[in-house]
């Protein structure tokens, strides 16, 4: 658990910068490790609860709230991985942009509260859904559990300086970086073209 | 000293399972879009965890996850436009209504 406890200590540095009194209450190593495990459990609980709400809620707005909870949990896991930039991007892009888009989608289509989404799934559909959820678990969970000892090097995750990320974008990821701008442009133009109402053409 | 990578991988696997569950159990395109976002989130989490907890350069993994986020944003925007079109044509985004060939009411 060295990785997590070191990222907790880097969190401490962050706290120290902003709120001195809290940082003076420094904890010994094992306590930090326990705190890291507790934080991990909390975030996974957030992911599981939010994800279940997002998937099973009968009202789409509630499902969206569950989705936001899940995104927050994943952002917390990014913080534990010593990747605060990714946590920030997660909040900015997923919670900020994609959730608003999904909310637009909910608002733009017919109110589904009395629609088919409100009905409980049939037996066959429920069986298929449980099968679809259990298949990846049954395939990969034993694989991960069996190789738990070999996965990773046990070293602490180190926080990447932002300059390194920028240099990566402009060196080995130059082509994907340019391509994704084209993809975003095409998606935007395609979205406008698709949703264009014929009434406004003349 | 054991690595914590398996824990993060299991969390990503949980997201994947929830995404597949939603993809099958949902009956509207909006619900399916939410499930796809869960799947993409799990993919990003596994990539970042693998890059941070192995000797692989961490910047490369984080940037790959940023690209996944960009693709997710583009996909969400396009799916929103498609939903508007489908809703205009079929009057609903329920997947059972989208039958243009089978007993079509064109």
What is this entry, summarized?
The complex is a heterodimer of chains A (about 200) and B (about 110). Chain A has about 200 residues and is mostly helical.
Q: Could you explain how this protein is built, in words?
A:
The complex is a heterodimer of chains A (202) and B (106). By secondary structure, chain A is mainly alpha-helical. Chain A contains eight helices and no strands. In chain A, helix 1 crosses helix 3 (29-56). Chain B is elongated and about 60 Å long. Helix content of chain B is 74%, strand content 0%. With 106 residues, chain B is an all-alpha fold. Chain B has a single domain (5-97), classed as Helix Hairpins. Chain B has helices at 5-25, 29-52, 58-90.
Shape of chain A: globular
The helix count of chain A comes to 8
Major interchain interface with per-chain residue totals: A-B, 94 and 76 residues
SSE run of chain B: HHH
- Helix-strand topology string of chain A: HHHHHHHH
Number of domains of chain B: 1
Q: What's the number of structural domains of chain A?
A: 2
Q: What is the structural class of chain B?
A: mainly alpha
Counted beta strands of chain B:
0
* Count of helical regions of chain B: 3
Uncertain regions spanning at least 5 consecutive residues of chain A: none
Instruction: Please give the CATH class of the largest domain in chain A.
Output: Mainly Alpha
- Biggest sheet architecture of chain B: none
What is the average of the pLDDT values of chain A? 82
CATH-defined topology of chain B: Helix Hairpins
Q: How large, in whole angstroms, is the Cα Rg of chain B?
A: 18 Å
